């Protein structure tokens, strides 16, 4: 029996991965991290999706993340700025690495080897810990750290947003992903505020996917 | 100016590393992790040592560690057992990896590249995340995760307890290490309870060091 733990934020990417995992594994558990993020509504969506699909879901409190760093994703009074050519100031250094390390600990405690994450190096906005080279290195480090054969599963790693929409469509969950996930920095579900970098990326990908679908049906 | 961040538990090894770092770097900062461990007195000792030597010291709350795992180091009601040929049940899977990842985040936020840890693969009791191969892999992963040139410094990695006592002696801090550090699982400072595996390892190393010193002076 193949078991997987899905790192679930409640956003488009990780929720798509949850359904990908439901197709590819016999038993699924999900873990989310509560780190005082602006968009707490993400966690609500993560919770609801798991309840609706009878998926065991653990929320880990990571308040301490905001003790460590200064940035606009956890400190609500800092304005979100998009810097030219750099990472947006929503970036929390090392965040993915921490989340995946915690997830691996939870996984091993549940006798789960496969840990699924929705990182993509196509749309990585300069985040170094969304690159495939980092994921490979982390996989080795985790295996050495715990003497365990983890497999980090990254179904979206080489997909852009258009392709991620296509994956959701192929999995038969296009509408769920479109309506019941939160990508927006302002915490608005679905199409979101339409203005923040995350909403723009999401809507541009969706537009391209729908255009291509339309064209192919002609 | 060379700066270093020392991961300080208040035990023999990390406190020896603190003094090693004071010799080898121009500016030192220390970080400790409060994870509801049995021996909270360790943290008190870490704090005192830093105050006495004017070292900036940050304590990071890691209560969430006990949410994740079941073990006798954080769950006080579980009896400590020493398993034959395996790791003691004080082991928290992935703990060193988490601590070093958090430490690296703190380091980068303070423009510090060098992170000092007292891990030793000589006395590692089967802990996979005390091995040199793990440290090297983690160093690479951290550098990729944060796009930063971390150097994990492990002055004790190839030292046994006798040699660690010698290092403290050579650094001129033998008495401080002997009296003002806590190794004991029961939280008794200095020579400790004398019964737990950590106390035995510490006292056997001390005995060997003193015997060799005595012999060399003859």
From TrEMBL, chains A, B:
It comes from the Bacteria. It catalyses: 7-carboxy-7-carbaguanine + NH4(+) + 2 ATP = 7-cyano-7-carbaguanine + 2 AMP + 2 diphosphate + 2 H(+). This is 7-cyano-7-deazaguanine synthase. Its EC number is 6.3.4.20. Keywords: ATP-binding, Ligase, Metal-binding, Nucleotide-binding, Queuosine biosynthesis, Zinc. Catalyzes the ATP-dependent conversion of 7-carboxy-7-deazaguanine (CDG) to 7-cyano-7-deazaguanine (preQ(0)). SUPFAM superfamilies: Adenine nucleotide alpha hydrolases-like. Its cofactor is Zn(2+). It holds the Pfam family QueC. InterPro entries: QueC, Rossmann-like_a/b/a_fold. ATP binds at residues 8-18. Zn(2+) binds at residues 184, 193, 196, 199. Belongs to the QueC family. Binds 1 zinc ion per subunit.
């Amino acid at each position: 029996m193949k078991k997987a733990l899905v790192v679930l934020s409640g956003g488009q990417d990780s929720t798509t991965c949850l359904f990908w995992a439901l197709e590819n594994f016999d038993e699924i558990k999900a873990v989310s991290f509560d780190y005082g993020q602006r968009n707490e509504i993400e966690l609500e969506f993560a919770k609801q999706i798991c309840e609706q699909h009878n998926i065991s879901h653990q929320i880990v409190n990571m308040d301490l993340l905001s003790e460590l760093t200064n940035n606009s994703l956890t400190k609500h009074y800092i304005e979100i700025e998009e810097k030219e050519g750099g990472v947006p100031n929503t970036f929390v250094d090392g965040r993915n690495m921490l989340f995946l390390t915690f997830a691996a600990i939870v996984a091993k405690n549940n006798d789960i080897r496969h840990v699924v994450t929705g990182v993509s190096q196509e749309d990585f906005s300069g985040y170094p810990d969304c690159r495939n080279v980092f994921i490979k290195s982390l996989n080795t480090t985790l295996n050495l750290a715990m003497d365990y054969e983890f497999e980090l599963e990254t179904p979206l790693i080489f997909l852009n947003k258009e392709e991620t929409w296509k994956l959701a469509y192929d999995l038969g969950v296009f509408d769920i992903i479109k309506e019941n996930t939160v990508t927006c920095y302002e915490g608005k579900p679905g199409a979101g505020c339409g203005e923040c970098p995350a909403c723009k990326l999401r809507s541009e990908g969706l537009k391209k996917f729908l255009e291509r679908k339309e064209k192919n049906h002609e």
